[in-house]
Every structure is written in structure tokens, then in C-alpha cells.
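Hey,

Quick one before I head out. I ran the complex with iron/sulfur cluster overnight. Inputs first:
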Amino acid sequence: MNARINRRGFVAGAAALAGLHTRADWLKFFDRDEVEPEDFHVLRRPFGSDPSREISLLGCGGVRLCVERNNQNRIDRELATKIFGYCYRHGVNFFDTGYVYHGGDSEKFLDSVLSKYPRDSFFFTDKMPTWHVKTLDDAKRIFREQCERTAALGYFDVYMLHSISSPSQYDNVYRKIGVLDYLKDMMAEGKIKRIGFSYHGTHKFLAELVEEYPWALTLIPFNGAEPKGEPNRQVLAAKKIPIFVMSPLGGGRLAHLNTPARRHLAAAKPGVTPAEWGMRYAASFEGMQTVLSGMSQVEQAVENVRTFSRERFEKLAEADIAVYREAIDLYNKYKPVACTNCRYCECPYGIQIPEVFTWWNSFQGEGRLPADDGGPNDSQELRREFLVSYYNTIPEHARADRCTGCRKCKEGCPQWVFRIYTEMEKIAETVKRVRETYLAKGGRLTGKGVLPC
Ligand code: SF4
Ligand code: SF4
């Protein structure tokens, strides 16, 4: 830790955080801002493709803003505004959104919150939802809507082609339909300052794509569990295209590693959270410009600002990188579904896809899947816990066994290491097997499957 850290502010901040539990507490906390003093600032680095400007090492993503407790579809504007204000005051100057985030409300939210600040004091980025574009008119309509939703901000500092993952997709939308030329026209009109892209494909295609245009930046998933992260980073670093990281914690799952992985990290650096390990890992390699975080929770914003502050941030040393990768191996050993909770998938039948995977990972990912093999997981108590938590967490209409296999969610999901419908089938079969065994061994179920406690 750097000697410049304000130790008193840091310790007082941790104590202040521990005592705050309710939304009202958090709102008051941000008004007082007692966690860190005002001069506790996030580190900035010169922007690789425009070194006259600096960008903060931490960026605010608008994909998963905090939502109202009783309505997951509505942004909690008051609290989200305070979180963004906190980040801005502490030096964050990169704010990203997308056409589809929160059904378009994320763009409007960023417009309202950022328009209070001097326009040249931050970077604002948005994206063309590639998978929604079938004609040039689609792209024009979407871009017009985005300009309307963000009218107070006037222009996009960087506008990205969203979620490029295959040559044919890029070819069809941006070459054949002519969307890239259209975006260049928008640049000539001053509505866009720079063009970049977000990417989920292979390093082979990326090596071709980087030659297509002088891209201002690329946004890629990069974390210890993302197999395409490192090969893609190498392609971009070699081309000196600034790398912006999305999913540094795999959509939050790497902030909650399983028990063996947490123990491994704690043995190497007691007191450093898995989230700080993951965020520092993402920023520790050549070419990394900024790590984006959704920060839907107050604790995330406070911890991220602290992790990336000038006073605290250090890249992980080679030995620490090895420790972190070993911890990820321990985590992966139990094969959790690699869902990042990004919520791009839409199920017309109401299956709660990310919620089902989060629940599943809390058993499968911990090596706690009930079994019938006479081992430690062959236990009625574990079967009961498994079933109770499933039935109480996922409403009946949204469970895995309601998946029809229609594959309509396939297009939205950027992850290639799993198939939603295949995992749903596996989960439904496992729940069925566990339930049958539980009943056969004398267990009881009531109502719609909720067990008596
Ligand atoms: S495959 Fe299953 S989860 Fe996906 S959209 Fe169809 S019903 Fe929903
Ligand atoms: S299933 Fe895919 S699209 Fe849906 S939340 Fe998970 S990673 Fe995102």
C-alpha cells in the first residue's frame, strides 16, 4: 500500500460502512461522504489514443444500476445518483451505457446525472446494439433515439459497436449494411468524437478486426476465469489499442468465490477481499486503461474507489497473479455456470435465467450438489436445503423445468462456454432427481414444493 494513503480516513471509513444497513442510511452517508476525504482520488492514466486527456482507472458502467427494491425494472434514481456523484467526486471520469441497458432507462439516467457536471470533465460512451440491427434504417432509428435520450450531453466521447462476436455479424451489420460508414458520418457531424467496439469473439478474428479502422478503444471481458481475455488482450496490446475491461469480476460471481478459493487468497494476503483481488488483477496487465464496474451496490462503489485510488492501487506482482489464478482454478473445479448476470438474455416464457444460475452456482460451485453415492453429499439434510432454497428463491413459473428449449435467449447471451437451454435442462433434471430421492428416503414436501422449516 502506498505511503500516501490517508490511514485515518481509511479506517474510519471501514467502520462507518459497517454500521450502515438501510437505504436511508446510505443516502445520508453519501451526503456526509465520511468514508474517504475528498482528496481520496482514483488514479488516472493518459488516454492511449488521445494522451492529452486522462481517464480514470475505474469507470462507471450503466448496465446494472441499483434498482428499486420492489421493482427490479426501475432504477433507484436517488441512490444511483448518489453513487455516481460519489465516484465523480473521487475522480472517476469514464461513464458507459448502452441502448439496451435497463430498457433504455440507463441512457436517460446517465444523461440526467452527468449533465450537472462540466461536459469536458468526463467521458461518456454509448453503443449500437448490433444484434438489433437488420437494416441501415434500424441503425439510424436507434442512433436517433440514443441522441434524444442523452440530449443534454450533446455528443458521445466514444461510440461503440456493441458486442461483436463473429466475422459474419460484423460483416453483415457494419460492412454490408453500411452502419460503420453511417457512424463515421455522425462523427463528421460532431455527434460522435471517436469510435470503438466491445468484443466477445476469438483472438483470431480480433486480429483481423483491429486492422479495419483506427479504433479509439476496445471493451473486452477480462478476469481470471475468462479464457478469451488474455489472448484478446495480447492482440490489443500489440496494436496499442486502449483496453477497457468489462466483467472484471465475472458479473459479480468472482467477488463471491467458493470456500477453497477464498481460503487460498486469504492465506496469501489476509484482509484483501476477492473483489479487490479481481479488480487489481484486471488492471495489472499491459494495455489496460480502465476497469468498468456496474456498482449497483453502495459497498461496491466505496470498495472500488478505494482499490483504484492513487493512495492504494498497486498492480499485482507476478507471484500474486499466480496465487489468484490458483484460486480461480479452485473455484472452477466445481464448474459453476459462467453466467455474468449481465441480463442481456430475454426469455419470453419468464424463466429467471440469471437468478436460476446464481442459485445453482451456490450449490454446484461450492461442491455441494446433493449426491446418491454414499459420500458426504449423500445427505437428506443437504437435499432438503437444496430444494428449500430453490423453491423459495425462484418462483414456480420461472424455474428451469419451465424452459421449453426454444433458444430465443441464445442471441442475447454473449457467453459461449455454456448454452442456457442445455444448463436449464441439466438443472431441471438434477432438481427432479434430488426431489425424488428426498421423497423416497422419507422427506416431506408441502404446497407447491415449499418444505416446512
Ligand atoms: S430456451 Fe428456455 S430460457 Fe431460453 S428463451 Fe427459451 S424457454 Fe427461455
Ligand atoms: S445467461 Fe448469458 S445473457 Fe443471461 S445473464 Fe447470464 S451471461 Fe448474461
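The chain has a mean pLDDT of 89.

Talk tomorrow,
K.
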